[in-house]
Amino acid sequence: MTQKRQVLINAIMSMVQIAVIGGILFVLYRFLLKTIGIEQLGIWSLVLATTAVTQIANLGLSGSIVKFVAKYIARGENENVSNVIQTAFLSVGIFVALILMIGYPIAKWILSLVILPESLSSALAILPYAFLALWIMIVTSIFQAGLDGYQRIEIRSILLMGGALLHLLLCFMLAPRYGLMGIAYARIIQNFTILISSWILIKRYVPLLPIFPSKWNKNLFKEIISYGMSFQTMTIATMLYDPTTKALLSKFGGLSMVGYYEMASKMIKQFRALIVSANQVLIPVIADLKEKTPKKIRSVYSTSYNLLFYLALPLYSLTIICIPIISELWIGHYERIFVIFGTLLAIGWFLNTLNAPAHYANLGTGELRWNVVSHVAIAFLNVGLSFLLGFFYGGMGVVIAWVISLALGSSIIYLSYHIRHKIPLIELAPKASRIIIITCLIGIFSFFIIHHKFFGSFNTIALNGIIILLFSMIVFPSLWFHPMRKRLMEWMTTEFSNKKVVM
User: Fold this and answer.
1) Residue 249 pLDDT exceeds 70
2) Cβ-Cβ contacts under 8 Å for 241 (sequence gap 6 or more)
């Protein structure tokens, strides 16, 4: 199998994974809304956000594994591949366990600050289970990163889809009887199943791995930790994103706002992941190119960015159009808070999505400086603006602050990449896609006018169905006649017919 064909398969499976998991989340959250209610869902969201802070103990090693596994595969050093995975697993497993024990009382204290007393006991009851599920997930990420290093991302996608389906079935069985505790049980079983499956699969590609990881290599640890510390800085900064937003949203807006924010955030992130996951396959590819033909990296970046822009703008625009009908289908009624949160988050995450090719190119080459600067900037902007706008404008101000922070901080990555590599900034809006920009803006503007004028006069689903049809008629021609569509179709057809194509 050629490398290009493997990249294509990885990208397609990554998108299939996101679509399948998105569908599962839709069913799951609708079920949980009816079973435990929006406030209990808000508690679960806050607990997960609080425990996520302890991912500082990851040391950035799971992010490093992809690069170093790909590096040693390219060099044919199979023993080092095995040693890298074992060293990372043992380091992360032990250190994360220690941090979780230290962080448990701190997490209890944080929850007591942001959750009302009558809801606190429910949050504290599931906290230990959330910590255990997190530990399993973090150590599993080492094996999954190993699969990514072998450019077998499609295998990881299948694992995650199977895990999500298992989690859904377990919630169906356990949530009605045990409530929040049932969801916690389901998460632990899901994560443990994925852990065992990931270990069995990575061992197929690395026969030198023992049954139980037991070898720790000091020199390899130093090598991957030096790269991983940049990841760690990004991890620490990222930990201030969701926990800060949800904690302040709980304080200034209440648990129901947290619940609707959680749903809107999950929805938009799934749409975002549908696009970004395809770009993520570039990390091992670029790591391999750096070892062999570094001159090709710029061409790969340009192709990736143009394709991403071609897909992202209409997808995010359509998402904004569909939010009211999603509210009807998912929540059961038009929920104004959910719709506003979803629209704001779609704008912020679109601007963030544009940095994906530069972000992953930097990860592949090991040039992480501007990735780190971007994450730190987002974190500090979010903390400062969320306090300020939350104090004056309540929960809505907190979400607006997050969107502003996300958009401004994310721009650092793609602006710096273009400047460093002497790529004109005007290419951030590719010439071939400028008609799409105009048609999407017209489509969104038409949506707001029609929705405002006729809301309440027609059934929401019928009204939005008409709007979606109108939007499609406006935007589709610009997508169809775009040169990227023809190039993408030719690439897919050629690769799957085993013919050679110049990318």
Assistant:
1) yes
2) 378, 379, 382, 402, 406
Query: Region 68-89: what's the mean pLDDT?
Result: 78
Number of residues that make up the chain: 503
Residues ≥6 apart with Cβ < 8 Å to 426: none
The answer to whether the CB of 99 falls within 8 A of the CB of 236 is no
CA distance 284 to 277: 13
pLDDT digits (tens, 9 = 90+) for 122-174: 889 999 998 999 899 888 888 887 777 776 767 777 888 899 999 999 999 99
In whole angstroms, give the CA distance from residue 447 to residue 389.
Answer: 28
d(CA 294, CA 287): 9
User: With a threshold of 0.85, does the pTM exceed it?
Assistant: no
d(CA 73, CA 150): 8
Instruction: State the pLDDT at residue 503.
Output: 40
Q: What is the band of 499 on the pLDDT scale with cuts at 50, 70, 90? A: very low
Alpha-carbon gap, residue 91 to 89, rounded angstroms: 6
Q: 3-state SS of 179-203? A: CHHHHHHHHHHHHHHHHHHHHHHHH
Please state, for a pLDDT cut of 70, what percent of the chain lies above it: 82
One DSSP character per residue, 308-334 reads HHHHHHHHHHHHHHHHHHHHHHHTSS-
Which residue type, as a one-letter code, is found at position 184?
A: A
Each residue's pLDDT tens digit, 290-321: 545 556 667 778 877 888 888 889 989 999 98
Looking at the predicted structure, is the pLDDT value of residue 351 above 50? Answer: yes
Q: What share of the chain is helix, strand, coil (3-state, %, to 5)?
A: 90, 0, 10
3-state secondary structure 56-94: HHHCCHHHHHHHHHHHHHHHCCHHHHHHHHHHHHHHHHH
Highest mean pLDDT among 32-36, 45-49, 329-333, 407-411: 407-411
The tokens 């993520």 sit on which residue?
280
Give the model confidence (pLDDT) of 210-243 as tens digits.
888 878 888 877 777 766 566 666 666 676 678 7
Q: Which amino acid is at 133?
A: A
Tally of CA atoms within 13 A in the half-sphere of 23 that contains its CB: 8
What are the angstrom distances between the C-alpha of 264 and each of 104, 122, 323, 342, 460? 28, 23, 9, 5, 18
Q: Which residues contact 190 (CB under 8 A, 6 or more apart)?
A: 133, 163, 164, 166, 167, 170
CA distances from 496 to 4, 5, 16, 274, 412 (A): 10, 7, 17, 21, 37
Q: Which residues contact 276 (CB under 8 A, 6 or more apart)?
A: 353, 356
Domain-wise residue ranges, the chain:
1-239, 247-496
Measured in whole angstroms, the distance separating CA 346 from the mean position of its chain's CA atoms is 14
